[in-house]
Amino acid sequence: MRIGSKTKAIGTVVASGILVIGISTSASAYDNIPAGNYGYAQWNANPSGSTPGDSLRACDTNADGYGVKAKAFNSNYDVVRTASTSGLSAGQCTSWKSGDLPEDNRFQIITYRVKDGNEIVLDHRFVSS
117 has which bridge partners? Predict the structure, then answer.
């Protein structure tokens, strides 16, 4: 059976596209968790350069008087990480909050809008250690 040049070309394009998608997906170091229009949180499962593994940080992107808080919960709903931009200027991220966690466990990250001690849930994602 002979494969035509068009079929070979299409196969090459599809294979290249799959390779690019695979590379771009695995190259993403952080899981981003949105916090509405207020900012976002980031989870980093594995150490990468100077960024520790099993780490969480919150970033405030809007100069509106509200902060961004992120909490990581384990399967028992115990808080294992907290990061909050309260007291920071807009456009800043907290330092990475880290410490060793058991490998291959799932955690839920919840982002909040915060002001004057009040927390409003904005979004959530499940991540792994």
Answer: none
Stated length of the chain: 129
3-class DSSP state of 81: strand
Q: How far apart are CA 17 and CA 23, in angstroms?
A: 10
Q: How far apart are CA 83 and CA 62, in angstroms?
A: 17
Q: Give the pLDDT band of residue 29 (cuts 50, 70, 90).
A: confident
pLDDT in tens, 40-96: 999 999 999 999 999 999 999 999 999 999 999 999 999 999 999 999 998 999 999
Residue 16 has which token pair? 């290249």
| Cα dihedral across residues 43, 46, 51, 55: positive or negative | positive
CB 114 within 8 A of CB 66: yes
For residues 109 and 41, the answer to whether their CB atoms sit within 8 Å is yes
Tell which wins on pLDDT, 21 or 40.
40
CATH architecture of 30-128: Sandwich (2.60)
Return the domain boundaries, the chain.
30-128
